[in-house]
User: Fold these one by one.
Assistant:
Number 1:
Amino acid sequence: MRWLLLKDLRILRRSPLLVSLLVLYPVVIATLIGFALSRGPEKPQVAFVNLVPESATQIELGGEEVDVTRQAGPLFRAIDPVRVDTREEAIAKVEDGEVLGALVIPKDTTRKLQAGLGSAEVEVLYNADDPVKSSYVRDTIKAQIQDANNALTKQLAKAAVEYLNLIGTGGRFEIFGRELDVLGLRRAEQLLRGSAQELPQRSAAREDVERVIMFARLARDNLDLSDEVLSSVGTPISVKQTELDGGATPLSSFAVAIAVTVSLMFITLLLAAGTLALEREENAFLRLVRGLVSRTELLLEKAGLAAVCSTAVCLVMLAGLGLFVDLRWERFPLWVAGVGAGALAFAAMGLAVGALTKEVRAASLLCVMLSLPLTFLALVPSGSVSPLLFDVVRVVSAVFPFKPTLEALDSALNDTGDITAPILHLLALFLAFGAASRVALRRFAG
Amino acid sequence: MAEPSGSKGATAQPDATPVLEGRDLVKRYGDREALRGVSVSASRGELVAVIGPNGAGKTTLLSILAGIQKSDEGSVSRAPAEIGWVPQQAAVYGKLTVAENLELFARLEKVGDPRAAVDRMLDLTDLRSRAGDQVGQLSGGNRQRVNIAVGLLGGQPVLLLDEPSAALDPRQRERVWEFVLSLAEGGTTVIYSTHNIQEAERHAQRVIVLADGELIFTGSPSGLEIAVEDGVTGGPPRDFEAAFVAFLRQQGH
């Protein structure tokens, strides 16, 4: 078996283009998939028209000057604004496809906010040529405007609370440049108590004054609660996030697990299937199994070669990715276990493909055709399809090594759970595909 | 079934003791019988050609003798490891050099001194000057010589060749036959199948004719001509190929 292994390595060494493709193709594909999964879309270009005069960008709320243009800050971090001067210009840019959408702030926006009578309205225009980007633009602007609404609502609530406090306790208040002294319910109550003492007991006037005193106290007590009520108006529902399952894998680390699993799958499948099919293509198979090596030894040699080579490439890949992503090197032995078990299962699957196809080119094509759907199936999130279909997806994913390899690597890299179960799963798949390839090898004799 | 009275030797006269025997070999593929109780034998240094029309069972017979396939009935006197086998298409690695191919199979055959075996085969095949060339870059004839050399590495006394000159041009064919004849002269028993009737007549000391899985003649090429002359036409056939066709017709095939 050693000589066969050396022979295969020698053949690989003499096929530099093939080996380069075998390594580079999956690494490039894996990196692209990793980026696609770990990064959102690029910032969409959105035309932005602010028709509010510069002199009117500030409004006074609750005695505080609020610069409305500052509320646009978070929005501009989420989009790539293309500033234009008029609404027509913005519409033209959207129609020409230069931008995906337009946001128009009408000139009366701050006046409406200042008056507090009815909502101020902003206008959003979309380009629906690309439904995905259009949806992204719509959601981004909607979310940012919601944030701005929340901020302004808080400011309005704060102003309202201050007015209510003024009514309750009294104090000084400035309006149109004139300072007024507001009596307030507390002081009104004190004044009324003093006046009531001077009125005769049981007189109708005293009873009326005491009723007014009671009302003033009741009103003041209830106004004390109003600031809490108004504060909750700003954020009526807050979100408390709790992750129940799947650990707390950072997106970048999960993308690394996916990238390495994809690379491992391609390299191992293609190597195992290709080297086995080559024995048939070179007509050497029958010569070999005529007593030189057993069929099982031949399969083990191919599986070992594919698994060792792909494990080495993927560990190097992990080391390389570790320069850009924070990986936990103290878990290196678990990385080796996860990658190695995955490589064995993929190798056995590759052998089954190689034995079925008998030709290197057909084997390679079938490997690629199988790999992509298996990858996408394994990445289908729960809830995105019907429960029945998701059960089918789970069963199909469990029959092939991609999903358990991803679980093993996620566990090894990110400590998301016990690695034993996925490794045992992979070893079971190794045995099952190994047995299938041993049976399929009968086709080689034909 | 006609029996030969003698043999037409292209090489040294063989020793009469059989070195390989296949007895009552039967092979079925589903309902179809590819071999029907065929018995063959060959002596040391003998050159035996297996001929017959397409689907006669030639490759099946050689595969069973070589141990590639198992027969449903019957037996073969030697284990596969004791028989050299050369498949019709070169079973060597195109990306390896001539010497590397020979060394690989010598090591897999567990030959005592693999490098000496490689040297011996390079001399025998006259391929020493091409030892460092990748087999994929060789001509069809040279590739077939490497293929045959690999079949001989184990030093087995019997060599089975499945259509060794198929797809070769006349010059390449000639070189292969020079090589095979030299082996027989050295005492190796050679059994080969061929579609080329002239090749059987020219090189074989004995021909085995198969048709529809049955052995219908075994004897010398001249014996086949005599059988035809006696049985069908009443006159001598114009050549061996005509005799062969006439014999098949005479036997109902």
Number 2:
Amino acid sequence: MIREILISALLIVGSLLIFLSGLGLMRFSDALCRSHALAKASTCGICLMLAALIMAIDNDISGLKIFLVMTFTLLTIPLAGHLTAQLVYRHEQGRLKHPSREKTPSSKTR
Amino acid sequence: MMTAVVILTFALLAAASVLALVRVLIGPTIIDRIIAFDLVAISIVGMMVVLSVWWKTQLFIEIMLIFSLLGFVGTVAFVCYLHNDPSKLKRVGKKDDSRKETP
């Protein structure tokens, strides 16, 4: 009973985090902001859901496999976000929209 | 109770993937489309997790591993393609600027 409640809480919190990253992807204004919203929230959400799966399948070898999936997710999603953010930063440096970001030392062109 | 939780999580993940697909459709630059496709892959892995919790099966674990690997490799391939030839990215951005200025 306690285990079911814990699994349900982890699943709901994880899927809510993924939904919030989708909402941030929809609502934010800039490619850098969207990458920022997606990388952290979806990594945390998918790791919570995989922890719920570890609890649901009560098996050692499956737990190790799911731990492997979790480690891989923790490695790859921030790396993909970093790569896309680097691409945005390198190629759209002169024409970012917001005036608050023009104060960064990288925008010497304006 | 478990059925309600599964339905709720499926609804949230489907809503997230629908939002990401809308961003794929209307995304101003190509980088937004890459990021949104990454979110589609993540939410599909989440749906596999919910199905595994519901059916208490171990069949989907390797499929989850392979699918997250495929999403990452797709993102890296797109980034390398645009990194080696940045004129494509600039062309897309200029189109976006002209499209924004015309209305």
Number 3:
Amino acid sequence: MIQAESPPLPSFGAISFFKRGFGTPLASLVSVIIYGVLAYWAWLAFDWAVVRAVWSAENVAQCKAEAGACWSVIDARHRLILFGLYPYEEHWRSTLACLAVVATVVLSCIPAAWSVRRLAALWIAGFASYYLLMDGSLLGLPQVTTDSWGGLSLTLFLFASVVLLGMPMGLGLALMRRSEMPVVRLIAVVLIDFIRSLPLLTTLFTAAVVVPILLPSWLEGDKIWRVIIAFALFFACYQAEVFRGGFQAIPKGQFEAGKALGLGYWAIMSRLILPQVFRHALPSTINMVVVTFKETAIVIIIGFFDVLASAKAAFGTGEWAPHYIEVYIFVGAIYWVFIFSLGQYGEYLKGRMAIFER
Amino acid sequence: MGSADMSTTEQLRARSVRRKLIIQGLLIAVTIAAVWAAIRSAQVNLAALGITSGFGFLTRATGWDYSFSLIARSINDPYSRTLFIGFLNTLFVGFISIVLSTFLGFIIGTARDSSHPAIKSAATVYVQIFRNIPLILQAVFLYSVLIHFPGPRQAMNVADAFFLSNRGLMMPGLNLSGATAVALLLGTVAIAAGLVVRKTPLLRGIGLWLVLSTGLIAVTTGLMRPDDAPVLSIPELKGLRFVGGIIVPIELVAMITSITLYGSAYIAEVVRGGLNQVPRGLIEAGRALGLSPASIWGRIKVPMALRSIVPPLGNQWIFIMKATTIGIAIGFSDLFYIASNSITQSGQTLELIFLLMAAFLLVNFSIALSVNWLNARLQLKAH
């Protein structure tokens, strides 16, 4: 015989939490063990990172005596990690430039900014202020060329330019893929599937090392721009698939209705289809942007001085060498905060749109 | 303009067809012109560098060494063998990481779906930590920690069988040759494929697979081991180094661990998404029939969820294969590492990048094909 069951528990709230976690002896035991282990680890980390830590660069000698974290290395080296080899007196420019990119990302998350025109204006403005500040020559400041950009500011530069260039390219590829012309469609399909089957590193490596052989020297350009364009192409191929998902959500009748009203292809696309596509594709687009930020870390392999490379340089020299863990945790925390918050925002948005669609 | 008896619609249609033909013709012409120009300038640039194109260099000896290979290697190996070793290494790391992260991903994903708050939050912490930090940063960090480990004499000792030191992870292993081990591995994959073909129910399938695989491995080890050697070889500290067992170099430990942690966090989210989509009514029906939670999981939730899990799971597998290219950041000789080193040493850039791309296309299309096959097997058939 089957026992009569009590009614199902609500899925949230404090009462449900205690009933689910401590309702039976077994559940309580599991709770105690897991929370105990988690709390113990949290305490170990807190003890190491805060209680026994040494904070300022002045009393570095203590680092050897205390067994805790030696945040002195961050105090002494954070400029290198954040700005790389950018001239020391000009660091205020790097700071402002990084803030411009972060502000652009934050502002894009506000629903009031969600029209193609506003988003495009926002990103172009953010990118332009970054470039003007970092390069400086157009503002009458001493010029600093891209070879001296580094650290977190280079990572943010790569990220912003890849998204800015890749988004229209992705839209273009998505439209080509839906084209009525077989040749256009074929080119888009081959390119998208080809790039998506290759590791990002192979694509970037090709742009850095192979493309100079295939181009006449006057067309070669800077390595950094070749890599950015290749990265943007990679982004575009994935983003095209995201847009494709958005297109699939739109009934075919809408396109036909537009045609019946006598609208041309571009009018139908820009007024009727694309606004809906963007709305459907928004959560996945945020996910793509987050992944792109994470993937920029790979450029260290093809010789760029990004935040990971500058972190390595920060402890690479003699006295700080034992404190590599602190440096990696610092850089990891920068990535984590950015990626976690954008990811949570994406989840929230997905939930909100799912409610609207019901 | 047109003749009087032709209607405007037909005129418009004819014009549109003509325009489409012109656009496509232009695109083809531009593509051909670009390819031709690239070939021309490659010829000019390569001639200036004094490089002869072609695959003749594959038979030349490389003259350089690298960190890891599954089969015998020397610096006198030709490029072809060295590249093949790199390809094997990529497949090896990729395969192990795929198996481990799928296994771990199912456990963590199920825990994320649990109604028990402690289990759920532990799994959430895991996913949020490992998914939100770039893989390469995790790999480089782990590798640095491993280099700073003490030497073999002060190795971290777990149960007198596993030792972790800055020379690598020493662990017990079966007394088998490399070729036999690979054959066994393929044998267990074949058993799994056979069970899928026969549509064995999930829980029984996993049980059968474990029994059959263990049996196969036990029998083969019994037959194939050298005469006087024990079945299991356990590492022992002799003087300054370890003897016996399997030695996993730290590059490989760092690769497999970091890729598995990162990959399993992603797969856990795929699994959770799939479990979430199983209609609640089905689970409640199972409960009403008096099924145990394990049966509900194994007979209702997972079989239903698999249909939506398998396609994104396949994408994760392809991602893991591609992720092996981070090997170069920690000195693990995967295919990308070997190809990039070969380019520096031989200058045969175009040929090597072609081989590299071809290898990845081959592997990733094979994964995609097998996932499609698996997916077709899992779909409900209309009767």
